[in-house]
Design brief:
The chain is an all-alpha fold and about 90 residues long. The protein folds into 2 domains: about 55 residues, no CATH class; about 40 residues. About 75% of the residues lie in helices and about 0% in strands. The longest helix has about 30 residues. It is extended.
């Protein structure tokens, strides 16, 4: 019970911080890929060409977001399984 209270408190703190920063700044939320691309172009003067191309690119941003969401869900399921497994093992023994 104590662990659940700690986890909920941490989630609430981070949610509050996120909402505060999001409402008080004019920052755009972009991915790290876009930032890295800008830095590379600045450092090389636009002469950099990637060594490899992606094997497959999603046809739209919505599909890319869907696949990313599925990846997050799968990771959450795996993490939740192991938390449940170890908690059940500790309670039974």
């Amino acid at each position: 019970m104590r662990l659940e209270i700690i986890v909920v408190a941490i989630i609430l703190v981070f949610t509050g911080l996120f909402l505060y920063v999001a409402s008080n700044t004019d920052a755009e939320f972009g991915g790290a890929d876009g930032e890295a691309e800008g830095v590379i172009e600045e450092l090389t003067g636009g002469t950099y060409e990637p060594i490899a191309d992606p094997l497959w690119e999603p046809p739209s941003g919505e599909i890319e977001s869907l696949l990313f969401g599925l990846q997050i869900a799968l990771g959450a399921i795996i993490i939740g399984y192991f938390f449940g497994y170890y908690r059940g093992r500790n309670q039974s023994g």
